[in-house]
Amino acid sequence: RIKQDVIAGSSHYLVFKPEQTGNYNIACAEYCGLNHSAMYTKVVVMNENDYEEWYNKNSANENKQTEIVVNN
Q1: What does the CA dihedral 8, 12, 18, 21 come to, rounded to 10 degrees?
Q2: pLDDT tens, 19-64?
Q3: CA–CA separation, 40 vs 13, rounded Å?
Q4: Chain mean position to CA 23
Q5: Cα distance between residue 6 and residue 10, in whole Å
Q6: For residue 66, what pLDDT is reported?
Q7: Residue 50: which of 18, 14, 13 has the closest Cα?
Q8: Which phi and psi (to 5°) does residue 6 adopt?
Q9: Sign of the CA dihedral 53, 55, 60, 65?
């Protein structure tokens, strides 16, 4: 378990070494306001080959979006 307060406009990092692949749901751990019960995200742990495939696919799309903004 970990708890990290988030401050608007700041960046936070969490580094850990996963032991199993899979999808892991994460829920907000502190009552923090409206729609608190809907504050979920997930961590996806995958093997290195799957990660490389995911990264290459998604980073290509990111670069295209950046080019569109720059060219406009």
Answers
A1: 40
A2: 999 999 888 877 777 887 788 889 999 999 999 999 998 887 665 5
A3: 18
A4: 12
A5: 7
A6: 54
A7: 18
A8: -110, 130
A9: positive
